[in-house]
Amino acid sequence: MNIYGKMMVVAGVTMLAACQNHGAGSSENAQPVDPELDRCQASQYQSYVGKPLSSISSLSFANPVRAIPVNSAVTMDFNLNRINFLGDKDNNITRVYCG
């Protein structure tokens, strides 16, 4: 294997290591949030993960919001200013993200 092949292997391993999930999103392990990727400020609502989708109905939002129950049809438009609350089969929130 030549030097370029070795460099590609090292680069690949480094990129894979960067993709690791280091545990649950607790406040002690919270990573800094890129403001450009968190334009909708979904990071402020991560504490709702595990709660029922209905728990967001009493909140008021400055940005557009979408609650997505499991197996729901949704539009594929991408809006970085919209907060998405993704639900599971038990209607509990599994993910909060912009898009």
Structure description:
This protein is α+β, with helices and mostly antiparallel strands and 99 residues long. The protein has a domain at 34-99: Trypsin Inhibitor V, Chain A, CATH 3.30.10.10. It is built from 1 helix and 3 strands, in the order H-E-E-E. It has one helix at 3-18; strands spanning 65-68, 83-87, 93-98. A 3-stranded mixed β-sheet has the order 1-2-3, with no helix packed on it. The longest helix is centred in the first third of the chain and has 16 residues, at 3-18. The N and C termini lie far apart (43 Å).
Indicate the overall shape: elongated
The CATH topology of the domain at 34-99 is given as Trypsin Inhibitor V, Chain A
The topology string of helices and strands comes to HEEE
Q: Any idea of the CATH class of the domain at 34-99?
A: Alpha Beta
Instruction: Please state the average pLDDT score.
Output: 82
Fraction of residues in H or I helices: 10-25%
Radius of gyration: 18 Å
CATH superfamily of the domain at 34-99: Trypsin Inhibitor V, subunit A
Number of helices: 1
Regions with pLDDT < 50 over 5+ consecutive residues? 23-28
Specify the biggest β-sheet: 3 strands, mixed
Q: Strand order of the main beta sheet, please?
A: 1-2-3
Task: For the record, give the distance between the C-alpha atoms at the N and C termini, rounded to a whole number.
Answer: 43 Å
The number of E-state strands comes to: 3
Which CATH architecture of the domain at 34-99 is right? 2-Layer Sandwich
Structural class: alpha+beta
Proportion of strand residues: 15-25%
